[in-house]
């Protein structure tokens, strides 16, 4: 087996759930670094700006640099800038900080949707619909990601995917998905000089994290601490990932054995 040289690590549901680290995750991350494995934190989290997410992780005990976080917000902001878009944003105020300012002298030419529970109302969604509908097919619908659901301290909660699909249905437009499981997202997050088979993606989403990474040749390790619910699957119908683990700490223990 080719040794793992880099780990792309999901955040919410994998390293933490809101303000609580998953069991043993803080020490496991230190251990992974000691093994000489390069680390990059890749996340579809769109409720928080990268700076706010970094501050949250440090506050709950993780040791990392802000530059180690590669967010779908970052990728989406680059997409907006490179395409000179003037979007109508359905984002939280904090996430909005990662995007360029609007050009008030021109009309909206696109809609950008992230995880923004307080803006998933008829008022905001209807405004987005009108922009897309009235453009007669010229406006672009940009989904920062299309997650179905995510884990919170109160349990499983709706992700932005259903709202993106609703806009697709009503407008006849197809969204452009930026974050996981987009192959471009994984490739752009990989350290320079490494091949996909030298990398592993560790996350709590069978499709967006693991199968998405495996599609480009990486290994995909699934953890049971977030949205993945083992009990909902029959034994013979479990996701066809590279491995399923109790938590992030168990993944690091497995990697340690392969390197020693």
TrEMBL record:
<keyword id="KW-0479">Metal-binding</keyword>
<dbReference type="InterPro" id="IPR006355">
    <property type="entry name" value="LHPP/HDHD2"/>
</dbReference>
<dbReference type="GO" id="GO:0046872">
    <property type="term" value="F:metal ion binding"/>
</dbReference>
<dbReference type="GO" id="GO:0004427">
    <property type="term" value="F:inorganic diphosphate phosphatase activity"/>
</dbReference>
<comment type="similarity">
    <text>Belongs to the HAD-like hydrolase superfamily.</text>
</comment>
<dbReference type="InterPro" id="IPR036412">
    <property type="entry name" value="HAD-like_sf"/>
</dbReference>
<keyword id="KW-0460">Magnesium</keyword>
<comment type="function">
    <text>Phosphatase that hydrolyzes imidodiphosphate, 3-phosphohistidine and 6-phospholysine. Has broad substrate specificity and can also hydrolyze inorganic diphosphate, but with lower efficiency.</text>
</comment>
<dbReference type="Pfam" id="PF13242">
    <property type="entry name" value="Hydrolase_like"/>
</dbReference>
<dbReference type="GO" id="GO:0005737">
    <property type="term" value="C:cytoplasm"/>
</dbReference>
<dbReference type="GO" id="GO:0005634">
    <property type="term" value="C:nucleus"/>
</dbReference>
<dbReference type="InterPro" id="IPR006357">
    <property type="entry name" value="HAD-SF_hydro_IIA"/>
</dbReference>
<keyword id="KW-0539">Nucleus</keyword>
<keyword id="KW-0963">Cytoplasm</keyword>
<dbReference type="InterPro" id="IPR023214">
    <property type="entry name" value="HAD_sf"/>
</dbReference>
<protein>
    <recommendedName>
        <fullName>Haloacid dehalogenase-like hydrolase domain-containing protein 2</fullName>
        <ecNumber>3.6.1.1</ecNumber>
    </recommendedName>
</protein>
<dbReference type="GO" id="GO:0016791">
    <property type="term" value="F:phosphatase activity"/>
</dbReference>
<keyword id="KW-0378">Hydrolase</keyword>
<dbReference type="Pfam" id="PF13344">
    <property type="entry name" value="Hydrolase_6"/>
</dbReference>
């Amino acid at each position: 087996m080719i040794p793992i040289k880099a780990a792309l690590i999901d955040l919410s549901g994998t390293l933490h759930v809101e303000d609580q680290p998953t069991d043993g995750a803080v020490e496991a991350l230190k251990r992974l670094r000691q093994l000489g494995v390069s680390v990059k934190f890749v996340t579809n989290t769109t409720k928080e700006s990268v700076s706010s997410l970094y501050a949250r992780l440090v506050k709950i005990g993780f040791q990392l640099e802000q530059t180690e976080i590669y967010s779908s917000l970052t990728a989406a902001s680059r997409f907006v800038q490179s395409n000179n878009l003037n979007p109508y944003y359905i984002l939280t105020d904090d996430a909005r900080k990662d995007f360029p300012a609007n050009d008030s002298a021109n009309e909206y030419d696109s809609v950008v949707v992230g995880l923004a529970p307080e803006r998933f109302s008829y008022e905001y969604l209807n405004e987005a619909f009108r922009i897309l509908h009235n453009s007669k097919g010229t406006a672009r619908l940009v989904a920062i990601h299309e997650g179905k659901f995510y884990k919170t301290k109160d349990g499983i909660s709706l992700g932005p995917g259903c709202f993106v699909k609703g806009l697709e249905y009503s407008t006849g437009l197809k969204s452009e998905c930026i974050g996981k499981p987009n192959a471009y997202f994984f490739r752009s997050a990989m350290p320079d000089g490494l091949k996909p088979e030298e990398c592993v993606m560790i996350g709590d989403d069978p499709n967006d994290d693991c199968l998405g990474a495996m599609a480009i040749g990486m290994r995909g390790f699934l953890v049971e601490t977030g949205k993945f619910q083992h009990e909902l699957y029959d034994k013979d119908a479990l996701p066809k990932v590279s491995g399923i683990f109790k938590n992030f700490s168990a993944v690091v223990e497995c990697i340690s054995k392969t390197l020693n």
